[in-house]
Design brief:
The protein contains 6 helices and 11 strands. The protein folds into 2 domains: 214 residues, HUPs (Rossmann fold); 30 residues, no CATH class. α3 crosses α4. The strands form 2 sheets. It has a 9-stranded mixed β-sheet with strand order 9-8-7-10-6-1-4-5-11, with helices on both faces. The chain is of the alpha/beta class. A hairpin with a 3-residue loop joins β8 and β9.
Amino acid sequence: MNLYVCIKQVPDTETKIKLNGDSSGIDAAGIKWIMSPYDEFAVEEALRVKEKNAGSTVTVVTAGPDRVVDTLRTALAMGADNAIHIELPESADSTMAAKAIAATLKKEAQIDLIYFGKEAIDDGASQVPQRVAAHLGLPSVTVVVGIEYSGTTLKCKREIEGGSYEMVEVTAPAVIATSKGLNEPRYATLPNIMKAKKKEVKAVKLADIGVSAADQKIKTKNLQLPPPKQAGKKIEGDAAAQAKALVAALHNDAKVV
């Protein structure tokens, strides 16, 4: 089977975000970059399918500036076989990214399954998997927390509103967007980390796939950091006094009662 996993490099959740000089984006200096956590489930799922199907290969794909190659090597260290880097500008939106990824995948000889994380934790747009599927004319299932494989048929368990689940059956080739709970991603071993550093990463330029700046539909003009949280108020006294003071604060200060 030819398995593809599309991943995205994002800032670590513990990174303190700063804006650049004109507030049109974030200041990339000093940021620790990681693979988006939902994409880890996608990589792990592809590797498990590969292990159960002899002769299968896993190819990881990402789009972005040169620094994203480090995240590709993380996936290679987990066990992926091949890697493709689409040279996309930092400012690219979901529309441009999806078109670039789909155009790149169209050039591959054969595709059986394409895995994504359900969303990237930086922008939370949750658009690229579905857009890629639309470009390729493939069925897609999102927020997948369980998969039963039977030949080319996949029965996908996905989360829906209200804490419920639904089952969706699709036939490969298909696009699957994974969520937490599908599996437990493995850690890369030291020998694999060393091997990953030597593996070739195929570079794809936008001109090679017919994508240009005109494909970007959204441009960021200004970003603002959320205001700092106000200090909390501590109410002293016994329970009766605290209750009375709390009601007074909610009425007089917060004006919610």
